[in-house]
Amino acid sequence: MSRLGWGALVVAIVVLLAGPALAMVLAVGDFNTHGASYSVGRSVIEMLSTQLAGNSRFSLVERNQLDAVARQQRIALSGMVSPEDAVSIGKLVGARYYIQGAISHFGVLTLLTARLMDVERRTVVAAYQAMTSEGEAGVPLAVRTLAADVTTSLTGPEPTGTAKDDYRSYLYDALGYYNQGDYGRSLRYWDRMVQMSPKNATLRFIVAAMHYSRGRYGDAELSAKEAVAFEPNFAEAQLLLGKSIFMRGRDYDATGPLERAIELKPEMAEPYFLIGQAYKNRGRLEEAMEYFSMAVQKDPNYVGAYVALGQMLIEVAELKLARQVLTRAVELDKSNAGARFLLGTAMVLDGDEKGARSQIQALKLLDPNLSVKLEGLLK
User: Fold this and answer.
1) Looking at domain 11-164, which of 3.40.50.10610, 3.40.50.11540, 3.30.70.120, 3.30.450.40 is its CATH number?
2) Which ranges of 54-182 would DSSP assign to H, the alpha helix?
3) 35-58 burial, b if ≥16 CB within 10 A, otherwise e?
4) Would you state the torsion angle of the CA atoms of residues 351, 353, 354, 358, taken in this order, to the nearest 10 degrees?
5) pLDDT for 86-142, tens place per residue?
6) Residue partners of 236: CB distance under 8 A and separation at least 6
7) DSSP of 346-369
8) Same CATH fold, 301-379 and 11-164?
9) Residue 29 near residue 66 (C-beta atoms within 8 A)
10) Coil, strand or helix: which one is 84?
11) Around Cβ 84, how many Cβ atoms within 10 Å?
């Protein structure tokens, strides 16, 4: 046998004797949430774990084992888990890597992030993000994106960097503090990420959404303008820009970006509703009702649009139609006191005393002041 043949045979024997490579042990921690139900956070963990478990190179720590160790160490997995605690838990369950993440809603966008902690080296070695504008229905695809990115990191060259040069390494902390309601501390991380990636329209959009949620509409308008400057076809940013301008009382100026949002994503209902409100504020009632009607066509469960449309129908004495519209609003949200008051008002004006009294009874529990006001109208 030639020397080359003997070499190949020796290599084959060594591989056979070595046996299969040991699977890399991974621990998947919690994904804390904001604006999403707790069940969504749990389902993200389950989906991500299932995706990773499908790869024979990985061995996942059982969830009940992870929970038991966290309880013993008095560490709450449901909140923010510090790198030190993540390393501690990872070591105790025998994991090489610990994965943790967060989920937050910013207007119509849902952002998921995950970071990979190297337990042995006690450092973050990679960070990931995925987004969807499809609400909770889009979360499964976003999770698959995260799982694919994690798999690529762990099956390629060993991740060695601290990831500090990647703005995504700050996403976990930024979302974590945001989810806890600590907007000031969260914003510091967002500002740092914007500095690292100044032309990133998504980051500027999220900063705008945070300012908007805090009632800082001027700051929200500025950040949203920067987002659309870098990405003019960013429909959600156009919507947020229009909302911010609208909340500052500039109805006419708000219409432009809201109409642009509709051009880019005609299936969105909120821009129609806001344009309707802008027209109503300017006394253009027919156009306002037209846009409110389009809003409920786009989203048949849009309670606010039904209420606004119902109120306008009362004002123009279309009582039968107003009752139909407001009845639908109450069906969708039985605890909506404003919708019940307007429905009761339409009933009073339409001569339906019995119907009005049923709304008075409901309002006694929901809003006693509106109950008294409606009773006064009936008298």
Assistant:
1) 3.40.50.10610
2) 63-72, 83-92, 139-155, 171-179
3) ebeeebbebbbebbbebbeebeeb
4) 120
5) 888 888 888 888 888 888 888 778 888 888 888 888 888 888 888 888 877 888 888
6) 107, 108, 109, 133, 205, 261, 265
7) HHHHTT-HHHHHHHHHHHHHH-HH
8) no
9) yes
10) helix
11) 10
- Closest by CA to 340, choosing from 320, 316, 358, 352, is 358
DSSP code at position 34: E
CATH hierarchy code of domain 301-379: 1.25.40.10
Report whether 243 contacts 212 (CB < 8 A): yes
Find all residues with CB under 8 Å of 117, minimum gap 6, and list them: 83, 86, 87, 90, 97, 98, 99, 100, 123, 124, 125
d(CA 206, CA 204): 5
Query: Is the C-alpha dihedral spanning 301, 307, 312, 318 positive or negative?
Result: positive
Full-prediction pTM beyond 0.85? no
Interatomic CA distance for residues 348 and 365, integer angstroms: 20
**Token pair for 81:** 């888990």
**In the chain, what are the domain boundaries?**
11-164, 301-379
